[in-house]
């Protein structure tokens, strides 16, 4: 019996070593026995290579006319290195695809992470209370999308990305248990919390169907347990409790 060639690739062993180091650090620090105090970085766009492990989606894939791009922007002045999620939304229906009755969306997410010697690469965010995003928004109604190893593969947990200061860098915290389970944009009942031990993908989408340009800058995305570790820039990040409770996807 010969091992598959993908398991002999250098990238496989590097990923396995990185995962071994991460698990060893958890064991040494006894993080499984107490609440972690350090942030758990998930997606870091200061590295240009991170763009390559992400994918974009839009209704143009079905013949629509919305556009989407995810570009790396290097550090410049007061702006840190980041990803620029941008394009234009169109609600015009495809002319050659009569099966499409609704249009006007764009999104990005990371690709499914490649396996290691420990199996499938999944994020375990169970020890953390919040998802943190360092962003600069244009004020549009973006959604944060989370996919897990759910029984229903197409389920997505969603939450609005409530920007307090459009046009400025800010850190936004979202409680993991505030995400809403959806399927193809429709709320699913009964609701269930995110499968925290097996998070597959994280991304951001725009489905407000308002025609015109959009532009969102994303610096980093990470899991954390409080305000002290929420913001790499050193400012405290307010939790918009009212905004979270009033939001529910239509």
Please supply descriptive tags for the structure shown above:
6-stranded antiparallel β-sheet, mainly beta, 250 residues, 34% strand
Notes on the structure:
The chain has 250 residues and is mainly beta. 12% of the residues lie in helices and 34% in strands. It is built from three helices and 13 strands, in the order H-H-E-E-E-E-E-E-E-E-E-E-E-E-E-H. It has helices at 5-8, 10-29, 241-246; strands spanning 40-44, 54-58, 67-73, 82-89, 106-110, 130-136, 142-148, 155-160, 169-175, 180-183, 186-187, 199-206, 212-224. Strands 2-5-12-7-8-10-11 form a seven-stranded antiparallel beta sheet, with no helix packed on it. Strands 1, 3, 4, 6, 9 and 13 form a six-stranded antiparallel beta sheet that branches. A hairpin with a 2-residue loop joins strand 10 and strand 11 (186-187). It is globular and about 55 Å long. The model is unreliable at 6-10, 19-23 and 232-246 (pLDDT under 50).
The unreliable regions are 6-10, 19-23, 232-246
Structural class: mainly beta
Approximate shape: globular
The value of Rg in angstroms is 19 Å
Distance between the termini: 52 Å
Count every helix, treating DSSP H or I runs of 4 or more residues as helices.
Answer: 3
* Rounded mean pLDDT score: 84
Percent range for β-strand residues: 25-35%
> What profile does the largest beta sheet have?
7 strands, antiparallel
Helicity, as a percent range: 10-25%
Number of strands: 13
């Amino acid at each position: 019996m010969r091992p598959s060639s993908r398991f002999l690739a250098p990238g496989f062993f590097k990923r396995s070593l990185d995962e071994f180091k991460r698990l060893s650090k958890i064991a040494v620090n006894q993080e499984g026995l107490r609440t972690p105090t350090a942030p758990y970085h998930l997606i870091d766009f200061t590295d240009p290579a991170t763009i390559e492990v992400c994918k974009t989606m839009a209704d143009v894939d079905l013949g629509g006319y919305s556009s989407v791009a995810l570009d790396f922007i290097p550090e410049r002045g007061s702006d840190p290195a980041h990803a620029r999620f941008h394009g234009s939304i169109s609600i015009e229906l495809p002319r050659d695809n009569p099966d499409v009755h609704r249009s006007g969306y764009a999104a990005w997410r990371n690709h499914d992470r490649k396996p290691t010697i420990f199996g499938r690469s999944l994020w375990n965010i169970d020890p953390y209370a919040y998802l943190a995003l360092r962003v600069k928004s244009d004020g549009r109604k973006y959604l944060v999308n989370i996919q897990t190893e759910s029984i229903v593969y197409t389920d997505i947990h969603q939450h609005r990305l409530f920007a307090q200061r459009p046009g400025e860098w800010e850190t936004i915290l979202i409680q993991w248990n505030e995400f809403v389970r959806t399927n193809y944009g429709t709320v699913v009942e009964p609701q269930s919390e995110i499968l925290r031990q097996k998070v597959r993908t994280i991304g951001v989408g725009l489905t407000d169907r308002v025609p015109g340009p959009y532009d969102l800058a994303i610096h980093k995305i990470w899991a954390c347990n409080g305000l002290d570790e929420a913001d790499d820039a050193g400012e405290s990040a307010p939790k918009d409790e009212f905004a979270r409770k009033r939001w529910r996807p239509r």
